[in-house]
Automatic annotation (TrEMBL):
It comes from the Bacteria. This is Ribonuclease inhibitor. Residues 4-75 form the Barstar (barnase inhibitor) domain. It holds the Pfam family Barstar. Belongs to the barstar family. It comes from Sinomicrobium pectinilyticum. Gene3D superfamilies: Barstar-like.
Length: 130
């Protein structure tokens, strides 16, 4: 039997609010939250902390996923990369510029696509649009 977890896309309008929703849903009952990092989100899906335990089978229902495809799409991703460029001591600027250029020329991945790619890498998680 799969555990059902629901993300409410109405709570998501930006990358920052995506992380707020992820923390609200996945980290309920914890006394700490994951940071704004795709690596942290990926780690969360492996289980062991938060509401997923030991790679248990999960159905992840994402309500309003199509709305969030736009919310976390091209414009939000461009802004996310450009924000990283403002902190060259914290980020690999060459990597950021490469990803930004790929997105601008139509070959890169949006933040939404990166999130769904990460989810799809976890064989214990089935993503469903709600």
């Amino acid at each position: 039997m799969r555990k059902k977890i629901t993300i409410h896309g109405a709570n998501i309008s930006s990358i920052a609010s995506f992380y707020d929703e992820i923390n609200r849903v996945f980290m309920a009952g914890e006394d700490w939250k994951i940071g704004h990092s795709l690596d942290a989100f990926n780690d969360l899906l492996y289980g062991g902390f938060g509401i997923i335990r030991a790679a248990e089978p999960v159905i992840l229902v994402w309500i309003n996923m199509e709305k969030n495809r736009d919310d976390l799409g091209y414009e939000a991703t461009i802004a996310w990369y450009r924000e990283k460029l403002e902190s060259p001591s914290r980020f690999n600027i060459k990597w950021v510029n490469e990803r930004l250029a790929a997105l601008e020329d139509g070959t890169g991945r949006t933040f939404f696509e990166m999130v769904t790619d990460i989810i799809s890498e976890h064989s214990n998680i089935v993503l469903k649009e709600g």
